[in-house]
Prior knowledge:
Blueprint (H helix, E strand, L loop, with lengths): L2 E5 L5 E5 L6 H7 L19 E4 L4 H4 L4 H7 L9 E3 L12 E4 L6
Parallel strand pairs: 1-5
Antiparallel strand pairs: 1-2, 3-4, 3-5
The chain binds FE2/S2 (inorganic) cluster.
Amino acid sequence: MPKITYIDSAGTARAIDAEVGATVMETAIKNDVPGIEAECGGACACATCHVYVDEAWREVVGGPSPMEEDMLDFGYDVKPNSRLSCQIKVTDALDGLVVRTPERQA
Length: 106
Ligand code: FES
């Protein structure tokens, strides 16, 4: 099982075993990871699942789709490494992924 580490804005890290095929958002919600709200349930329509992808992982994770980019405009404190976590599918290649949650969601 790929392990994903979520680091909140206070610096607290939570390492979670993720299911391949789930999304980074679903994994967070299922495991009560704070800092991700996911109001639209993963439809790329709310931007409250915003995370920052660790620099070392940006290339592996890849960038947002044009639709995701449009939605990210509504995110809080968006940075070049911002992604919507409902749009990142967990694969074995993401074992060890580190994402940070923003201070607050949109
Ligand atoms: S959960 Fe709404 S955009 Fe990701």
